[in-house]
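Bit of a strange request maybe. I'm writing a small parser for structure token strings and I need a real example to test against, not something I typed by hand. Could someone generate the tokens for this chain?
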Amino acid sequence: MKQNEYITAFKNKYGFLKHSNETLFNNWAKNNTFSLKELFPTIQKNEIFPLDVSINSTWIGGEEEFNNLLFFEKKLKKLQAENPTKIIAGGYLEKRALYTSEMYVRKINDTFDRRNTHLGVDFWLPKNTPIYAMFDGEVIFSANDNEHKGYGGLIILKHEVENFHFFTLYGHLSKKSVSEKISGDFIKKGSQIAVLGDASENGDWVPHLHFQIMLSLLDYQNDFPGVAFENELEVWKNICPNPNLLFKLTNL
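Reply from user aminoacidic:
Good idea to test on real output. This should exercise your parser:
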């Protein structure tokens, strides 16, 4: 099933704008706050420096500069050195021009449509940075996405909370750490999920964690979109709420 077919199925099942768990999740998130130190306990930072890599970014330039990994990583290291007490992060609902793989393009009536709106938060951290569980979860699947500009190592967890459930996605992980988890594994709060991979195994990106929340997996079996088509955004942003609802940071 193609991405637009999942959207049609979602509309038919839940209506255009609202998922049945949206209010439950929002109320739960309002009453619970989590620290970045829980997600990255070896980093011991709970503030972020917001990074803009949107189509209007003046920090990185255009698509060519972003996809020059040595150039981009050098700029990130300089930015991190200037902000040593903060994690460089951002990107929820950010419109980006950097998705160059064919998986981000579709053709409708002889017109090319590009997926360009980011559905998670990116935390730009070094390779091998450990990622830990902020709440109990079951591994729904773990996989290695070998597509250029894909996820690389990917894990999705399911969380049962009060009277509903939701999912979290962790992308751009190392192959080894992903291979150590299988569907059905239970990961307790405070346990390590995986570690970040480098460009050779994370989909050809500068090391970072793509962190995303989903209220439904729709009918996806071993993947889930991290980027949306603009004309479907009203649906996707209700399936994938802002991860900062958990952290409540003023500049994320």
